[in-house]
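Methods: example folding runs. The two proteins below were folded one after another, and each record is reproduced exactly as written to the output file, sequence line first and structure-token line second.
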Amino acid sequence: MASVAAKLAKDKAAARGIGANKNPRKYLNQDFEELKAQCLASKTLFEDPTFPAAQSSLGVKELGPESEKVQGLVWKRPSNIKANPQFINEGASRADVRQGALGDCWFLCSIASLTLHDDYLCRVVPMDQSFDTNYAGIFHFKFWQYGEWVDVVVDDRLPTKKGKLVFVKSTTAHEFWSALLEKAYAKLNGSYEALSGGLSLEALEDFTGGIGELYYFDKAPKDLFQIIQKALKQRSLVTCSTKSESGTGEIVVSTNVVKNHGYTVTGAEEVTYGGNTVQIVRVRNPWGFMEWNGAWSDSAPEWKEVDPKVKDDLKIEREDGETWIPFSSFLVEFFRVEICHLNLDSICREENHKWCLTEFTGCWTTGCTAGGCKGNPNFWTNPQFRITLEDPDEDKARGSAAPLCTVIVSLMQKERRRKQPEGGKLFSIGFYIYKIPKETPSNVPLGKDFFDTTKKIASTDFYRNHREMSKRFQLPVGNYVIIPTTYNPSEEAEFCIRVFTEKKAQTLEFGNTVEAKIYEPLLNSSPETEIVNGGEKRREEKTEFTAVDLKSILHESFSKCDKIKSDGFSLRTCKEMINLLDEDNTGTLSKEELKILQKKLEHYTTIFLEVDTNFSGTIEASEMRNALQKAGFSLNNRIQEVIIQHYVSGDLTINFEDFVACMIRLETLFKMFSILDTNKNGNLNLSLSEAKMSRSLCNDVNHILVLARKPSPH
């Protein structure tokens, strides 16, 4: 339940503006200015306890303690590596980024792309840092993470071998901004090893907060060159990748192209050659050398027939890893291009205008919301997010065509890279979009029947094990539900969904309300059934029933019911039943209160038997949502996840006793909330003593915090 408190704290921080680039959240609660001031006052150099100069910061496998790559490694500060170190020397450029011994070319070509735009770079790399003025061995960088900016602090101890940097380095030997940026990103992701292998798009988005588009050349649109050219003109960041069928390591082929490698795309032009127009693109290898050696390369004869002015503007003759390549050859040598848009107008239209952004966060939880892709029996249990499109795009609203709304949906799985060195992995993810009737209530998630009988209206083209899957659509005005999923069921991860629309859209998480219509029986509504008819003589003799009495009565009653497999209720659960119905606070139940309890148990028994469709004596965790709805409880996903954690066994089932205990606990919580919510506004203001009382009553005050949280539209 600590995650609930953390989520509440994060929401409050966002309301205060924390998380913007100019006011980033302090990563791991480390305040750069405070730490620097402390070091200056004590005349010491900063040593970061959260990312120390130690093996734990390097990794566990590729950079593990037994790896040859870390043998002889020494952590040194820049002043011990080069005399007169500088943070940035004469401005940052893509030449400042040369790959070292770590397989993070995807990250480094993203840095190189970032250097093409000073304003983008300054948002990530604060330029008021140096090794001269007020130097204290501490630096900081800002990254976008799942909807907010964070400020990451590092010390300047860097991994070296034989006095040279092991990982990224600048062509200017005494410049260290790129090495320190790499260290900060490694800290954000858990270790240097966590940066080995990935999509450049991931880093581009972490540098900008932009939205990505990924094009694979085997399914590329015919106007891909124009898309790349337009993106570069719109100052989008663009990278590309190669691959090899023969292995996973980086391989240099005869054309000097490095396979299984990432490059930066720095230009896309059309030039006149031999009376024809030729499309060429400029790519840069983050190694800083090893360039394409074919047509339109630095020394290629094609440049001799190009207009001298054009040649002067475009041609580069130096071994810096950057060169031009014909677009036709580009499509052969490379296999995908990644574009990070900061100005979304470059995606859809020419005019400048602002886009509306809506963000959701959630998680896939085994037995609750991890239903897998379409075709899995529990697909319907995945999280559901409603979006209402009311205003069509301006250019469509005035035309003769049907009014359409441009929507860009991005699904991103969170924190998976951090888990990779320990065996974690990126899951294959995707999403579906369904159209729903306007009158569809949002307080209850759509059920299995809806998805069995309704066709999707849009989806991602495929599932891939990328951090993000995004796609743009043009949808008619109407109401829709977005279903984010992993490909396989029972894969657990947190996720973030971003929805961009040209016009403001109404959005809401399905089932984000918390309410209950609790069954309150009438004593004369029906005769008692056999399952609660045990202990008749004992009840005639007693007027008050303790928890021990109740335990005995219920054991005798349910042991006679063939349809229920029960070993009896625990004394704790019996006490909770008494707490629920003990109006006079005697700690016991009267005969009338016992009859009410019996009716409630009959009601919950009927629900349990309805949901136990295979007559196993237990219900599947994924069916708990149906059971809760039948019992009158509309609960958001966070509360349902807590219920699964508390009551579901290792085989993802819930037995009868735990099911009833859960229902009784929920009734008690809602009853207590109703009593404490004196203003009837869906919020509680508790004194410390009241909070302690609430804890003693419900055994977990965090349940109250969850229930007390008034649902708010996104």
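Second run, written to the same file directly after the first:
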Amino acid sequence: MTIGFIDTGIDSDSPEFAGRLSSASADVAGARGLDNPDSDHGTNVAMVAAATRDSLGIVGMAYNAIIAMFRADSVGSCATKDANDPKSGCKLADSAIAQGIDQAVTAGARVINLSLGGSSASTVVRLAIARAARANVVVVVSAGNDGDSTEAGVDPNNPDPFATGLRQSGTGNVIIAGSVDKDGAFSAFSNRAGAEANWFLSARGEKVCCVYDNGVLKITTDATGARFQYVFSGTSFAAPQIAGAAALLIQAFPNLTATQVVDLLLRSARDAGSTGADTTYGRGILDLAAAFAPQGTTSLAGTAIPVPVTDTTGVTSTPMGDAGTRAGSIETVVLDSYQRAYGLNLAVGLRQAQVQARLAPALAANNRNLALGGGKVALAFSVDAAGRIAKLPWTGQLRLSREQAEQARVLAARAVLQLNPGRKLGFAFEQGADGLVAQLQGRDQPAFLIARSPLDDLGFGASGQTSFAVRESLGPWGLTFSAEHGSAQAAARVNLATSASDRLPGVPASRFGLSLDRQFGDLNGALGASWLIERGSVLGARFHQAFGARGAESLFLDASGGWEFLPGWRLGAAWRSGFTRPHAGGLVSSSGSRLRSSAWAFDAQRNGVFAAEDSLALRLSQPLRVDRGGLMLNLPVDYSYATLSPVYGQRLLSLAPKGREQDIELVWRGGIWNGTAMASLYYRKDPGHYAVLPDDAGLAISWNRQF
């Protein structure tokens, strides 16, 4: 960027400006050249704004900026400086100032620094400021150094009339600069914001380093050997810090207009003094880091869909395990409220499914299981056994209010009916269809505490489930149709700027299946296929609305079998293979978006180990896991300020974990002491498909008796 300076000239030989002095620079008040032996004011101002970054001396705010210096001090005025009169010395004529402003605009300056002050600006200067505003140029002007003045007619509680007049002549493109010290305390010498508080910005202008002598830092040593560097103070040196900041913003974000740059610097200022704009600091103290940070709500480039940078971008499901931590970089582009482009790594906002402990919940659930059967009807219930209903007041009515029903609700229920010798029908509440199908087919499966059956595992939690199944006997074969519907639940908490809740609402999920089974003597087997339809999730995973994900469809192929090779002995195996196709839409591309998943188990069971009614069973299993695949996202990956439009590219969000959970469990069940006992010994490798988690091992012993 080119920064224009209307000042007293510049040390053109200083290495701090080497190669960056604009050829348009000129003496607009005479024919003396840019170097001024009587004043280093212009040099010091330019140093603060744009001294080079060369590991020597000082570095300016915009250290690569082009410097367009327009020397405007009246001939001979700087030589009249009187050390006892701070108002003596360099004088700048309004005509020269106006000419310098116009020539800076012509030279391509996007920012003009006016470290000047004094009485009201003439019409010629005000008109030049108006022309600069129309040319989309930011102007920064010093507030003045009369803050501690007691001179008659001087108002320290407002900026100099010169600064006020320039601000009024601009159309939102002028900032008035006041001074603070290194600790942010307002400088005693600086004019205060006063009536111009909304356009006043404070910056470091007190004891600014450093004065140069022949191109090097000016340092002296006293008699004690102490070294002193010369510093300078004044609102003249607060202004170029703001001018340099404006140049950096325009360079980084070329779409910004002058009024937007001014608004951004004022809006992002660090509040000081009284809360909000006040009559001392104005809008606050310059905060360049805050000015560069996104402002307002960010949205995905090319869309109006908000994507706050602090939002959770997705919640993976249990079959995806640690995939979120391995997603690497999924870079995209978002725009802030000023339409500035920022890179955003979507992978940073991913949340992984929370790994749930298996043992404690299995033992601590205060539920009671009830089973009734007789003839052609079998009923099973799981009810809340916490006794809350007993604490409710008796109303004398044989019905429950809605609140009471919630407190005493049936947690799960299943009903199976024999309609005729060849047809069975089942219904279930808060249970999936897989258990119904197994019961209708008469599959004998050992019960385990930790190791799950692959044929009862979709990999994500659901609530409000209702399911249905009907089995028709076809000679030695059985054909079962099943259906279920529920609400898929997110597997982790989220952070969304648009929601006060950290929980996502459930989304609908339905599944329909067919299964064919047959008994071959001591062998039994079943083959099944089911179709899962998700409205808003992908195998249980949830993604930010900006993705435009429309859900997914999955095909599951199942196989199971059992062999009672000896009396009391049984071997069993089950396999589930899933093929998931996310629906295309929004950022999700139809090409390359697919998942492959699998689950399996092998069982061995011995009945009558120590007594006629006990059993010992061993299972080795893998819960449902994504083996490969993910979402192919069509993302804005770059942004053109020339066309104000994004550039798109495809990026794969892999949802396959590195970890692979494998469970082994040994369970004994039997009767003892007039009750039912269970002992389980288990081991889980990579719990939840997280490779970094320590393996989980445990022992559970329970004894149960009903009275």
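Comment on the second run: The two ends are 86 Å apart (CA to CA).
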